[in-house]
Amino acid sequence: MKKESFNPPPQTQDHQPGMEAAMQPAPLSKGTSYQGSGKLNHKVAIITGGDSGIGKATSIAFAKEGCHVVIVYLNEHTDAKATQKIIEELGGHCHLIHGDLGDETFCQAVVAETIATFHSLHILVNNAAEQHPKDTLEDISASQLQKTFQTNVFSMFYLTKAALPYLKKGSAIINTSSITAYKGNARLLDYSASKGAIVSFTRSLALSLVKDGIRVNSVAPGPIWTPLIPSTFTADEVDQFGLDTEMGRPGQPDELAAAFVYLACNDSSYVTGQTIHVNGGSIING
């Protein structure tokens, strides 16, 4: 598949967050051209939503850099095991944990299991999210609003709070925001608002933790070909997905992985409270 001409064909899935195994074509996540150089040797990372899409690509890139990876996902067991297999074939170590990140008790259990398995924690990637398009504000129910923020925002507070006692000087926290936090989206009001909250959370947490030598940054993707897309939009909308970007196509998950590696390793030692925009050419002043 040539990235410069990629246009996903019409397709849908009937549940979120969606299954990568059911997508045609499958997203590019393996990063075959990406060569690790030991930038994360002997580090341990928790990556939420690491079973597929951006999280999968990041997990694989981290493993190539020598990192032990804990993938946290909801219930997409086929995708998670496929990602684990790729990492293990690379010679890496990958531990899978599934459950609802909107539950604070589960987030605490994720960190406890990570420490029990790998005995340390250096990197936290808060990446899991959900979205539910609605035509008007009136169409967004209280339960949808609560669920969106529970998954997209509260989970970051819960998991980061549980992880902080184990993060030391030199550790990194990376949050996945979105271009919608900066440009807005008329049909993704609650999702865009949650992503805006993540930007503010990133900046504020960076200021809070800078004295401890812990860096906090975010990556703001544009339209990326992940399972969330066919499980969110109609077939006709999927057919047009990402074509309105300056590059005229959606991005692939492996086009973001290097940004996460950069923010996780010492190459970004003088970077905190910032956002890297990977969006196909949109100029974002923020």
Write structural notes for this entry:
- By secondary structure, this protein is of the alpha/beta class.
- The chain has a single domain (41-278), classed as Rossmann fold (3-Layer(aba) Sandwich), CATH 3.40.50.720.
- Helix content is 35%, strand content 13%.
- It has a seven-stranded parallel beta sheet, with helices on both faces.
- Strand 1 (44-48), helix 1 and strand 2 form a beta-alpha-beta unit.
- Helix 1 (53-64) packs across helix 8 (257-264).
- The protein starts with 43 loop residues before the first strand and ends in an 8-residue tail after the last strand.
- The model has no long low-confidence stretch (mean pLDDT 94).
- Residues 1-36 are annotated as: Disordered.
- Pfam families: adh_short_C2.
- This is Short-chain dehydrogenase/reductase SDR.
- GO terms for molecular function: oxidoreductase activity, acting on CH-OH group of donors.
- Belongs to the short-chain dehydrogenases/reductases (SDR) family.
